[in-house]
Structure formats: C-alpha cells, structure tokens
Amino acid sequence: MGFVSGAVEGHAALAAVGGQRAARFRAARTLSAVESLKDPETEPYRSKYSARALLQEVKQLLSAAEEGGEAVLAVRRAVLEYELGVNHTDTEELSAGEEHLQRCTQLLEPHRLSPDCVSLYIQAQNNLGILWSQRDRIETAQTYLESAEALYNQYMKEDGNPPLDPSEHFMAEEEKLTDQERSKRFEKAYTHTLYYLAQVYQHLDMIEKAAQYCHTTLKRQLEYCGYYPVEWARNAATLSQYYLSKECFMEARHCLAAASVIFSQAGQVPSAEDDETEPDQQDLPERKAEIARCWIKYCLNLLQSARKLLEDNIGELDPDRQLELKAQRKKEEDEKEKGRKKAVLFGTSDICDSVLAMEEKVSSVYPLDFQEAREIFLVGQNYVQEAKEFFQVDGYVTDHIEIVQDHSALFKVLAFFEEDYERRCKMHKRRIDMLEPIYTDLNPQYYLLIRRQLQCELADTYYEMMDLKVAIGNRLEKLDSHTVKKINSLAQFAIKYYELFLDSLRNPDKVFPEKLEEDVLRPAMVAKFHIARLYGKLITSDSKKQLENMQTSLEYYSFLVDYCEKYPDAVPAVETELELSKEMVNLLPASMERLRAKLSSLV
C-alpha cells in the first residue's frame, strides 16, 4: 500500500513540476512577444531579460524521469535552446544567440525529419540565417536558409503530415493544437524561409531568383493569411518595379493591382499575423503615396516602351510600324487568356475579383495610338496627384521633384503620339510650366545635381518646342514675324539652360574642366552640340548677326571635334553628334566665307 501511495505522490510531484514548467514557458513567451513592446526606451530589453531568466528556470526543471524519457527530454531542451537563441539575438548578443541555436540543431539533428522536430529545426535554421545576415555574412546565411528549404521539401515529400509546433512541447495534451493550426504554423515558418532567401538573393545580386522567391512568398502569405497588409502591399509594389525592368507589364500591373487591393485592408481589420496590430499605422499616407509612385512608373514605362517600338530613325512615329503592330495585336487577342494564365496570380478567389477589377482600369499592352496612350497617361497623372498629396515640396523636396519630373516625362511621351504640332507644343509648354518654378526655387548650394537635371530637361524641352515651331513655319508660304520671334525666343531659352548647365561644371575660378568626369561627359557634349545647332537655327535678317551666330556655332562644333581628338575614349559616348560636328566643321567655314564676300560686295 505504501509503495502505491508513494508512486502516486511521485506522479503528482512530476505533474506539478510539469505544470510549473509549462506556466513559466508560457510566461516567458508572453514577455518576449507582448510585454517587450511596452518596455521603456531607457530599458528596451527589460522584458526580454525577464523572459530569459524564466527560460533558464524551465531548463533547470527538465527531468528525464518523465514520460517519454531521453527522446522527449532532448526535444524539450532543443526548444529551450531555440527560445534562448532567439532571445539573445533579439538583445543583440549574436555570439550567445548563435551558440544556443547551434545547440538546438545539434540536439535535433538525428531526428530532424520527424514530425516532432522538423518545424523547430527549420525555424532554428531560419534564425541562424537571419543572424549571419546581421553579421553581413550573406553566403553563410544562404547555406542555412537553403538547408531549411531543402528540409521542408524533403519532409513534405516523405511524410507531409502537419508536424508539431515547437510551443506544443510544453503544453498539456488537452491544450495541443489542431492539425489545421499545426499546418498553418508550419507553412508560415517555411514562408519565412522563402522571405529571407529572397532578401539573401537580393544582396547577392541574384535579382531574378530574388524576384521569384519574393513572388512565391507574397503568394503564400495570402494563401495562409499570414501578412501585414501595408508591408505586403509595399513588397508587392516593389516587386512590380522588377517586372517593369523586364518589360513584363502584365505581371507588373498584377503586382500593383494586388498591392492597392491589399493596402485598402490596412487599419480595417487586425492583421492575420497572430492577430497582432500592424506596426507603423501612422505611416499609412506615406505608404499609399509610395504605391502611387510605383503606379506612375508603370504608366511611364509602358508608354516609353511603346514609343521605342513605334519610332523611326529620327524619333518620330512610324505609321507603317504602327499599322503592322495593330494587325499583329488582332492576331494575338485570342492568346490573351493563355497569357493571363501564364501570369503568376496572387490571392484567393475573393481577393482575385478585386484585383482583376483594379487591373481593368489600365491596360498592360503597348498603346499604339494617341487615344490608347492618353488613357494610360491619365491613369499615371491621377497617381501623380495622389503621390504629391503626401510628398509635398515642404519637407520632401527631392521626392516631390522626382514626381514632377515623372509628370513631365508622361507629357513628353504622350506628345510623341500626338500628330498635331501645335497641340504637341502645348504639352511641352505644360512641362516648362511645372519645371521652371521648381528650378527657380532650388538652392544651388544644396541641390546642385537636381538643378543640373532640370537645366538639361528645360533646355531639351525648349529645344523640342523650337523644332516644332520650325516645322510649323516650314508649312507656311512665308514666315511671319510672330513665328520668327517665337522660334528665336525658344532657341534662346534653350541656349540659356544649356549654358547654365555647362557653367555649373566650372570650378570656383569659373574655369571649364579640361577633362570631363564620366557622369557629365555625355550631357556636357550634347549640350555643346545642341548650342551649336541652336545658333544655326536663329533667324535674322542682319547678315553681320548671322555671321556672328555661324562663328559661335562653329566654335561649339569645334569643341566636340577637338575634345574627342584629345580624349579618344570619349568618342563612344557621342558618336552621332561627333560625326555631324565634323561635317559642320568642314562646311561652315565655306558658308561663312560666302557670307563675308556678300557683305564686302554690299559695302
């Protein structure tokens, strides 16, 4: 009888120890995940340190005498090593964190493919990957994360049943998770593996692989309802820019449409990430504006790519090419559905409907005429207004100017599709009206590079307007004085801005550099070339003035020729301009001589 009562008391004592252990383990996790968010700035890790002390106590309470023996003990020790590893990493004690995480994997190594251990092992590998990333040892991080990926794939192939979640090793039987919840947590751990691998591949400049992993991560986050809407939307919008660089417009649009739809969930419902509230709710207006900027880039890139397809050798719209592409597009209409299926779609059916509705608002095929281009332009312009609401000039100077420059670029590419020269001129005038006030207000001391960009853009725009006015004038029987005045005025404004750009390259003693830096070589040479052409375009009835203009023109053409003779490595940057400059250096002196002779005969 005494032996039986002693055994019962022993079981009761073990159960009490087990209860203490489970309670402290739960308390440690609560301290780490919840209470630590409330820690004061003066003691940022107070709750983490308290959690660590509790985990150490749980470690002392472990006993092989319990049900399950050595195998269960090893897994529980591994869980605690994992928790301590994460704790030390969170408190920036990376060496100690690494030791605990390594001990965790060593304990689990023989059983890493068992349902009891696989989830914990993958999460330990994930955290070792993060730890080595923090040390800037990206290749080492890659090894751990790829190992976690391989283990997941092997487990799913060989077993596939929902494995135990690490927290369950300190739960009573009645508290254990359902298979559905286990599966959700396991898939979430693997999604984290893919997410970190995407970052690693990005760091290693394996851009295509990074994009592929990012896309898979985003897809899985929606599938398993494990995401913060704002963060998800931001990542999807960023991914769209990769697809833009590859001219995959259907995929880029899909990412942006999904980003806009998911972003609209922000703040409306708690995040599916363990029912936590998403951080950075106060940043919503900025994040919304960032997504708008990605939409602007989408519209701009689509228009610019279409322009490249349609322009002839002098940069004008090629009508034959336009007809050819329109005929080709009709044939491809039947393939549209196949194309849609090829695109990597996001989301569950309820999200998909909203995403598809969003996509319908803007095309993903190249616009082939003005009407189609205008529809894309208007979408881009709406997003310009949305982005400018947040990125205002007061406080966000650089961002604001970049958005205005994109707006200007939208007008520029739309003008390409416009056949009417007068209307085209008005579009360029809109660009001038938006860029000049910004340029005037910029302090040269702090915004030298941006001012240079604007100087070149303003000069190019005035130049384009002058060319259009010349083309309009050429259609007239006789140039009227108003058109002459307009052509000369536009040419002089273009010269002014090109000269301002060239002056910005001078040293404090106002001396122009003998050898140009690589980043300004082409802009400077093109500016010189355009000034030479502009002086040749000025219209005057005064022969002396005409001779002066020709002389100035010759000096600028000669600069290009002489510079390229002195520095032959500059030639590839300005081959076309150099060829024309050489031609003009040969022709102009003879023309000037004829004009001088004419002047002499009049005296």
Automatic annotation (TrEMBL):
Q: Does the keyword Methyltransferase apply?
A: no
Where do the TM regions start and end? none
Q: Which Pfam families match?
A: KBP_C (PF12309)
Location in or out of the cell? Cytoplasm, Cytoskeleton
Keyword Transmembrane helix in record: no
Provide the Gene Ontology terms for cellular component: cytoskeleton; mitochondrion
Q: Which InterPro entries match?
A: KBP (IPR022083), TPR-like_helical_dom_sf (IPR011990), TPR_rpt (IPR019734)
Q: Which GO terms describe its biological process?
A: central nervous system projection neuron axonogenesis; microtubule cytoskeleton organization; mitochondrion transport along microtubule; neuron projection maintenance
The record's annotation in SMART domains points to:
TPR (SM00028)
Alphabetic keyword roster: Cytoplasm, Cytoskeleton
Q: Which PANTHER family match?
A: KIF-BINDING PROTEIN, KIF1-BINDING PROTEIN
Q: Which family does it belong to?
A: Belongs to the KIF-binding protein family.
What this protein is reported to do is described as:
Activator of KIF1B plus-end-directed microtubule motor activity. Required for organization of axonal microtubules, and axonal outgrowth and maintenance during peripheral and central nervous system development.
What name does the UniProt record give this protein? KIF-binding protein
Q: Which organism is it from?
A: Ficedula albicollis
